[in-house]
Amino acid sequence: MHKPRKIKRYCPKCKKHTVHSVDKVKKKKASELKQGQRRFRRVMRGYRGFPRPKPEGREKTTRRANLKYTCTKCKKSIQPPSLRAKKVEVSE
Ligand SMILES: [Zn+2]
Q1: How far is the CA of 25 from the centre of ligand 1 (A)?
Q2: Per-residue pLDDT, 46
Q3: List of residues 6+ apart from 90 with CB closer than 8 A
Q4: Which residues on adjacent β-strands are paired with residue 90?
Q5: How far is the CA of 59 from the centre of ligand 1 (A)?
Q6: What pLDDT, on a 0 to 100 scale, did the predictor assign at position 44?
Q7: How far does the centroid of ligand 1 lie from the alpha carbon of residue 87, in Å?
Q8: Rounded to the nearest whole angstrom, what is the distance from the C-alpha of residue 28 to the centroid of ligand 1?
Q9: Span 35-81, pLDDT tens digits
Q10: Where are the beta strands (DSSP E) in 1-92?
Q11: Distance, CA 32 to ligand 1 centroid (Å)?
Q12: First to last CA, the chain
């Protein structure tokens, strides 16, 4: 899937359609203080194994991709729910 670098989109802060720049969101290292990471560490402790069993069966053919839209006027960025696609490219 190809996405343009600039796209016209609704900005909730400006309350109208403005030009947004599109960026892919990279995965950041999980903070040790976040609830999800604390829960993960707690579950991993002791004799129980990994929190979830490894998924069996066929591999998924698509991956989740997160896109971030930043308003060029007020610099507010919005990250809508991720989308599934084989490949997501942000092109000119
Ligand atoms: Zn805006």
Answers
A1: 19
A2: 80
A3: 2, 3, 4, 5, 22, 23, 24, 67
A4: 3
A5: 39
A6: 84
A7: 28
A8: 25
A9: 999 988 888 888 766 777 777 888 888 888 899 999 999 999 999 99
A10: 2-4, 6-11, 16-24, 63-65, 67-71, 77-78, 83-85, 89-91
A11: 32
A12: 13
pLDDT confidence tier of residue 30, bands split at 50, 70 and 90: confident
Token pair, residue 90, equals 């942000």
Asked if 51 contacts 1 with a C-beta cutoff of 8 angstroms, the reply is no
CA distances to 24, 33, 34, 60, 75 from 9, rounded to whole Å, are 16, 34, 31, 30, 13
Q: Tokens 């989308």 — which residue?
A: 83
- Both structure tokens of 83: 């989308």
